[in-house]
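Replying to the earlier thread about multi-chain prediction with a worked example.

Input:
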Amino acid sequence: DVKVTQSSRYLVKRTGEKVFLECVQDMDHENMFWYRQDPGLGLRLIYFSYDVKMKEKGDIPEGYSVSREKKERFSLILESASTNQTSMYLCASSNTGLEANYGYTFGSGTRLTVV
Amino acid sequence: AQKVTQAQTEISVVEKEDVTLDCVYETRDTTYYLFWYKQPPSGELVFLIRRNSFDEQNEISGRYSWNFQKSTSSFNFTITASQVVDSAVYFCALSEYNNNDMRFGAGTRLTVKP
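Result:
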C-alpha cells in the first residue's frame, strides 16, 4: 500500500524554537507539498517541490522554509515558531506529467501546538 | 490563480436523508481537474473522485454522485441515504493542467445523526 508518512502525529513546541516537520513517501513521486489546515480556511499551500533541491512558494510561505535533499523526503521548517503557527500540517505527494492530476496522496497530518 | 469556494461550513442531517455539498470554482485555464476528498475524524484525507474539465458527465458511485456543470462553475457532491459513517469534513479542490499544485476549498463539515 502506498504511503506518505509524517514523523509526528502531535507536537508541542515553545515560541522561538526551530521546528522540523518531516514527511517521507515511498511511491517515487516527483511532487511533494506542505499544507496547513485551519478551521474555516481549509487547506492552504505553504510550499511545494517538483524535484530534489527544488522548491516553490505556495500561498502562505512566510515564516516557513523547506528542504528536499532526497526525492522521498520533504521537510518543513519553522525557523522561529510562533503561536499563530499552531495548526494541523499535512504533507502530500503526487506524480508528474499526465499522472499528476490523478490527485494527491496525503499523510495523516501533524498537529503542532506552539506555546 | 485558481480558487474554490465551499459556502456551506456545516451541515447536519439525520440518517437516510439525502444531502448535497456545494462547490464553486474559479480558473482561467480551459483544462483543469476537480476533486473531492473526505477527511474522517482520523484526519487523513481520502480521495473520492477526480473529474477533468472536458468531461461533464455526471458520475455515480454507490450512494455518492457528482454533478459537474461548467456553465455555473460548480462541482456538487450528493450523498444519497446518508449514514453515520459519512460524517466527516469534505473538501473540494481544483488543479490546473499546467500547475501541479492543488487549491482547496474551506471544507464542509457533515454530521449525520442516527
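The longest strand of chain A covers residues 31-38.

Feel free to reuse this layout for your own posts.
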